[in-house]
Design brief:
The chain is mainly α. α9 crosses α10. The longest helix has 11 residues. It starts with 11 loop residues before the first helix and ends with a helix.
């Protein structure tokens, strides 16, 4: 009389329209997990903010410099990323690949963003 767990392999679209599967997910895992999964399949989760910080910086480093000020207006998190020292270090070293040791020490103390805009 016991029911063993099974595996149902459906696409996101199938799950989106399958009320029975949704009810089972809700019953077994609860509302928090259900809400997360439902947002995931409906495209409401921002993947960039869930990536490790270093990977976010690396992605932003591929943007055009003109896009950084506009991106910083999107949210507090993007503003913080757009002002991050590691991002400006990448931008600076891309334009000036061989900085002096003194400049590196100065930039580490004062910030690469400041060095980028004053150099």
């Amino acid at each position: 009389g016991s029911i063993y767990p099974g595996v149902i392999e459906d696409s996101y679209e199938d799950f989106y329209h399958d009320e029975r599967a949704q009810r089972e997910l809700w019953r077994i895992f609860g509302p928090k997990t259900f809400d997360y999964v439902f947002k995931l399949i409906s495209g409401q989760i921002d993947w960039l903010t869930r990536l490790p910080h270093s990977l976010q910086i690396r992605i932003l480093s591929h943007l055009n410099l003109d896009d950084i000020p506009r991106l910083s207006l999107v949210s507090k998190q993007f503003r913080s990323l757009c002002r991050h020292n590691d991002l400006w270090k990448i931008f600076y070293l891309r334009q000036h690949p061989k900085p002096t040791v003194d400049l590196v020490h100065y930039a580490e103390r004062r910030g690469w963003r400041k060095v980028f805009f004053t150099n």
